[in-house]
Amino acid sequence: MAGRVVFNPQAFANVEKDGKTVGFSFETKAQYYRGITLSIVRDIKINIDGEDVKREDIRFSVNGETFTLEEMRTVIDSDYRWEFGEYAVVTVLKEGGLSKGKHHIKALQVIAPSYMPFQIESMNEADFEI
Amino acid sequence: MSEIKRSVSLYSYQDEYYDGKLDLEGALRETAATGATGVELLAEQMIKRFPKPIETEEFREKWFGWLKKYNLEPSCYDAFLENRIFDNRTLSLGEQINMMKRDIRLASLLGFPNLRTLVSTPMDVIEGSLEYAEKMGVKIGLEVHAPFSLNSGWADGYMEMINRTGTKFFGFIPDMGIFCRNIPDVVRDKARRKGAKEECIKIVDDAYAKRIAKGFVKIKYDLNLGKANMEYRMANGMQEMMDAVKNAGGGPADMEYAGSSFTYSWSEPQDIIDNIDYIFHTHAKFYNMHEDYTETAVAIPEVVDAFKKAGYKGFLSSEYEGGEHLRADMEVDSIEQVRRHQEALRRAIEE
């Protein structure tokens, strides 16, 4: 079930709020074959240019609502699933965002379908430019 | 003339759906274009905001309108009992039965006479849902997917329940991946692209052939699937194969190929005949259909022949699973793959 292209190449960007750059965001599909409740997304780990992002700095948005990874543990509403083939918006809070130029992202998705004896851990990587 | 019917599982079209080339209606249109008369659905794959739309008349009108337009009959609803939906506990028995009943109801709302459940569904949950399944007219089928098999200690656990309850609403859905004569070529080619050595590939292919020659040691019934699976692998010579690959200088690609060999297995087609009273739907799994309508691994003619001999009247539902070995490196053409597979099934059924 691996090998999908998950990132939206057009969507890597810094995030502005009240005239300030508060972080950066990207869009990613799930490396899996059906839509899932956010509660079975057991972790998202992000590394940019060799530097790990702190778990509490990650925000995950689907259908216009935004959750922390901690909050996602209990999200089972049918309006806020990570739909098959659809992008979720992942935002990383980081003052000043990313510098202009080239970057490399490694993003690990940990998904735990109940029927599987183990979790699916898939590492996805991409080069992008801000 | 055989009464075996042909269906397509929309799982087959996942790559085109993922890339936005097909939507649900498009997948139904392609299904009909293959000559299949049945459709199998993973609601959580192609119905957004599951399960809400299924509860609405508006969606159901659309669904039944498409079925009429494309002349398709619902064959099987593939359910995923998410009994570990929260990370801190497994749902209680009552909660799981309620979830199963919800899925049975959803299947019935969309006109499906069969519901596929997975091996991780506890026996108590199946038993606790039987009365409701009967009331709704939806049969619960347990998918028999490698490493599981019919005529095994694992299947006996379910046969005991069938005999004890006398139920007509539970049975097996064999996945034709349990009839693989060899490891699919698309898996081997992927290993080569990743740098696997010919010597190691041969060790693995020979080990698979040896498993078939000796007869696969069958998996036991154990709800601890990880443990049961590891015992099964060890009993089928995993350690020796892994050691041989390592000694031949095998790297990650070789080890991955060796490990993947346990995704496939060989059962005797006679298993179908022996268990036909408990089989009402079938996943016609395939990995790579060649231009001459031969499948790389699955013994289609022999297995279909067993279904014919047994007088099977259910669907053989195409389930394409080759895309995952291609998509990282090349375009996947599920539409052409399913077309070829349906033609191969048609020939095997009619000729």
Report what the structure shows.
The complex is a heterodimer of chains A (130) and B (351). Chain A is mainly β and 130 residues long. Chain A has one helix and eleven strands, in the order E-E-E-E-E-E-E-H-E-E-E-E. Chain A has one domain. In chain A, strands 1-2-9-6-7 form a five-stranded antiparallel sheet. Chain A has a four-stranded antiparallel sheet with strand order 5-4-10-11, with no helix packed on it. The N and C termini of chain A lie far apart (30 Å). Chain B folds into two domains: 262 residues, Divalent-metal-dependent TIM barrel enzymes (TIM Barrel), CATH 3.20.20.150; 81 residues, no CATH class. Chain B contains 15 helices and eight strands. Chain B starts with a strand and ends with a helix. The chains are: A mainly beta (130), B alpha/beta (351). Chains A and B meet through strand 3 of A and helix 1, helix 3 and helix 10 of B.
Short account of what is shown:
Chain A has 130 residues and is mainly beta. Chain A has one helix at 69-72; strands at 13-17, 20-28, 36-37, 41-48, 51-52, 58-62, 65-68, 81-82, 88-93, 102-111, 120-129.
